[in-house]
């Protein structure tokens, strides 16, 4: 009887371990092929629109990145400006200046914010700069690796850099580099796949929320999660099927094939859904927004308008392109030019919000509260 119980418990343990280690496989190819009509209010409880103030001190160029805290909206553009607006869109301050001085940056390759400490971290070439939310300079630290240009931060002031996918190699290379706020290297994590083909170095994205950090290797179908102990776990397996980039596609000689391929550009995690932004091609802004319903496990492609499938989430005929998140809020970009062109199609409520906008106004940030 004892032997029987022992065997039964052993089998239960094995089954339990198998279940816990089972990977979630998400069929991205199927979602790409099957766009559907979706009432976005199934997942969104409210939308707040914040027109960013337009004045000579804060003319925003092409947007590189937008982040939010409780009271501020931070906007970086490709002209190496970082502007701070309050939660109602009123301009507050420009952060830092371009230059070689002690509190200046050579360029803004990326930026992130530490909401717990109310600090802004600007990644520049070989260094990062730390500012308070009000724009006051705190420190500059060197990291002696100019390839580290894409960064996120956790509440413990650890900076997570993802290195670009380099040229072909014979060995597994460092992919994730984790630093403290002083610029001291804490840990590196190697890629799991050796690059053997292609000739284009390429950056990927890294994302931190609730002290978990997520990243995807370019030549792997797996999305990884680093926990607060810096332990790496498998999070999602993404099946791109015929749309997957192969290593050989990362070559200018294969550029003609890029239009038929997709890659994960960005990921966001919420309580009941995940968002996957997948890029059509290797360059450009053709981004398809997919919604992963955590309760059903279904990956939904809400872009059923064929000529606007890369316009993010369409609401009242206006495109809302996902940018970033803050707690349960999704920040989206709304183009003033599109609003002006479609004013006759939108509701009176939205028309009132957008009444003062002109084509050359600063963008509008649509903040969606995710259920």
Can you walk through the features of this model?
The protein is mainly beta and 371 residues long. It has one domain (26-370): 6 Propeller (Neuraminidase). The chain has helices at 2-20, 28-33, 336-341, 348-353, and strands spanning 25-27, 44-51, 63-68, 72-77, 82-86, 91-94, 97-98, 104-105, 110-114, 119-124, 127-132, 137-142, 150-153, 159-162, 174-179, 185-190, 206-209, 212-216, 222-226, 232-239, 262-269, 273-280, 287-293, 299-300, 313-315, 318-326, 329-334, 364-370. Strands 1-20-19-18-17 form a 5-stranded mixed β-sheet. Residues 1-22 have low confidence and may be disordered.
Keywords:
371 residues, mainly beta, Neuraminidase, five-stranded mixed beta sheet, 4 helices, 28 strands, 10% helix, 41% strand, globular
Note poorly predicted spans: 1-22
Largest sheet: 5 strands, mixed
Give the strand content.
Answer: 35-45%
Please state the structural category.
Answer: mainly beta
Count of DSSP H/I helices? 4
How would the blueprint of this fold be written?
Layout: H1 2-20, E1 25-27, H2 28-33, E2 44-51, E3 63-68, E4 72-77, E5 82-86, E6 91-94, E7 97-98, E8 104-105, E9 110-114, E10 119-124, E11 127-132, E12 137-142, E13 150-153, E14 159-162, E15 174-179, E16 185-190, E17 206-209, E18 212-216, E19 222-226, E20 232-239, E21 262-269, E22 273-280, E23 287-293, E24 299-300, E25 313-315, E26 318-326, E27 329-334, H3 336-341, H4 348-353, E28 364-370
Parallel strand pairs: 1-20, 7-8
Antiparallel strand pairs: 2-28, 3-4, 4-5, 5-6, 9-10, 10-11, 11-12, 13-14, 14-15, 15-16, 17-18, 18-19, 19-20, 21-22, 22-23, 23-24, 25-26, 26-27, 27-28
């Amino acid at each position: 009887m004892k032997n029987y119980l022992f065997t039964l418990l052993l089998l239960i343990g094995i089954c339990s371990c198998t279940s816990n280690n089972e990977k979630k496989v998400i069929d991205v190819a199927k979602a790409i092929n099957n766009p559907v009509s979706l009432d976005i209010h199934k997942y969104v409880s409210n939308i707040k629109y914040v027109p960013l103030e337009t004045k000579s001190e804060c003319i925003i160029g092409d947007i590189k990145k937008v982040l939010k805290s409780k009271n501020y909206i931070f906007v970086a553009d490709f002209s190496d400006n970082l502007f701070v607006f309050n939660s109602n869109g009123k301009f507050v301050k420009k952060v830092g200046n371009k230059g070689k001085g002690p509190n200046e940056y050579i360029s803004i390759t990326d930026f992130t914010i530490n909401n717990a400490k109310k600090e802004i971290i600007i990644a520049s070439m070989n260094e990062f700069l730390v500012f308070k939310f009000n724009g006051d300079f705190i420190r500059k630290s060197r990291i002696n690796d100019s390839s580290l240009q894409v960064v996120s931060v956790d509440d413990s002031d650890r900076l997570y850099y993802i290195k670009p996918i380099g040229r072909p190699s014979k060995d597994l290379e460092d992919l994730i580099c984790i630093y403290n706020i002083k610029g001291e290297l804490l840990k590196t994590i190697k890629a799991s796949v050796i690059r053997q083909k292609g000739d284009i170095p390429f950056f990927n994205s890294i994302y931190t929320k609730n002290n978990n950090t997520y990243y995807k290797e370019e030549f792997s179908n797996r999305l990884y999660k680093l926990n607060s102990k810096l332990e790496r776990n498998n999070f999602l397996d993404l099946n791109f099927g015929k749309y997957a980039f192969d290593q050989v596609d990362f070559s200018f000689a294969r550029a003609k094939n890029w239009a038929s391929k997709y890659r994960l550009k960005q990921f966001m995690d919420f309580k009941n859904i995940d968002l996957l932004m997948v890029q059509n091609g290797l360059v450009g802004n053709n981004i398809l927004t997919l919604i992963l319903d955590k309760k059903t496990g279904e990956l939904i492609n809400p872009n059923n308008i064929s000529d606007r499938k890369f316009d993010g989430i369409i609401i009242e005929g206006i495109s809302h392109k996902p940018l970033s998140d803050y707690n349960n809020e999704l920040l989206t970009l709304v183009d003033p030019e599109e609003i002006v062109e479609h004013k006759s199609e939108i509701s009176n409520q939205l028309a009132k919000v957008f009444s003062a906008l002109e084509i050359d106004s600063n963008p509008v940030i649509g903040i969606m509260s995710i259920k």
